[in-house]
Amino acid sequence: MSLNSKSSNKNHHKSSNKKRKRYSAPPGYTREQYRKDTMQAYGVLTGIGVFLVAILVYFVFIRKPASGENPSADAAQTVTVERTTDTETESDSSAEPPAAVSSSSDSSLSTSSAADSSSEADSSVSSAAESKSENKTAEAAGHKLEVKDGITYVDGIMIVNKTYSLPADYAPGLDPQAEEAFNKMASDAWADGVSLFICSGFRSYREQEMLYNNYAAQRGADEADRVSSRAGHSEHQSGLCMDVNTTEFDFAGTHEAIWLANNCADYGFIIRFPLGKEKITGYAYEPWHIRYVGVKAAKEIFDQDICLEEYLGVTSDYKNSTDQNG
Fold first, then answer.
1. Which of 1, 73, 112, 287 is 20 to 30 Å from 173 by CA-CA measure?
2. Is residue 283 within 8 Å of residue 215, measured between CB atoms?
3. What 8-state DSSP symbol labels residue 282?
4. CA pair distance 241, 259, nearest whole angstrom
């Protein structure tokens, strides 16, 4: 074998030994440390990959064309709707075609219209409430109106009519002071040759309810409202009123009726539903129906030729009713 051949074989042998040489870790470098370093390297590579993908997505799908560039013909048309507020302008982008934006605008207008309608309705309700409040304030203007246990008093005088009601369970019976005043009046009338007696005094809520319903069944509700009171709105339940001698309309013009009208105020009574005041009291003229209010008030009402509603500045109308009994 030649010298060159030996040299070639020697170099080949060294090269083979070099390829088979295995990597040996530096002193003190453990397999566990190697595994940790490898995982960290994989993590870094993964992060770089995600970053590159994000950049790709941005430029392909998100990035808007620069000024002067034309968007792709296949790209969905982008419509920008700007809403200006007091402090800033916001831009909302939508990938929907113009028709969809128009529908959205119509929906917004409808919502706005609905909100305006709701606002107007609330305003109307508020106005109605304020109007009702003003009407209540107008009642007894210039007088002291107070409610105690469901009973309304104006200047200390109990008021019971179509506007103001009594609780269903209010049942005081005939007022002793009113009864005493009547007995004195009847005695003095007797001395004048006039006979007066109580035909009907206190009447309970239930009794009035049956009486009114009977009238309504026979004559109709409108006529019943003209000559009778609905339950809770009758002065008979207060114990302060009386029907004298009769409840027939032919009592008017009799000697007894004339004496009663001319003298009852001296004993604290008034003709509760006087002639000519029907639209104010809400009831037909009843010459037999008297109400005790005290001598001072009775004389003032008689001298001024007015009714109790006018004297107290109140209404008598079921439309204004404060009926607490439903």
1. 287
2. no
3. S
4. 18
Note down the domain range covering 307: 138-206+233-320
Chain Cα centroid distance, residue 204? 34
Closest CA to 197 of 128, 256, 151, 255: 256
CATH of residue 272's domain is 3.30.1380.10
pLDDT of residue 164: 96
CA count, 13 A, side-chain hemisphere, 211: 18
**Residues tagged active-site:** 286
Q: The tokens 């831009």 sit on which residue?
A: 91
The burial of 182, by beta-carbon neighbours within 10 Å (0-12 exposed, 13-18 middle, 19 or more buried), is given as buried
One-letter identity of residue 11: N
Contact between residue 62 and residue 55 where contact means Cβ atoms under 8 Å apart: no
Are the C-beta atoms of 288 and 236 separated by less than 8 Å? no
Sign of the torsion angle spanned by Cα atoms 247, 249, 255, 260? positive
CB 163 within 8 A of CB 314: yes
What is the C-alpha separation between 259 and 255, in angstroms, rounded?
6
Q: Which residues of the chain have pLDDT under 50?
A: 3, 16, 66-68, 70-115, 118, 121, 124-137
Residue 238 lies in a domain: yes
CA Rg value for the chain: 50
- Pair 263, 199: CB distance under 8 Å: no
Evaluate if pTM is beyond 0.70.
Answer: no
Question: Is 92 exposed, middle or buried (CB count within 10 Å of its CB: 0-12, 13-18, 19+)?
Answer: exposed
Q: Which two tokens stand for residue 202?
A: 């206190």
Give the count of domains, the chain.
1
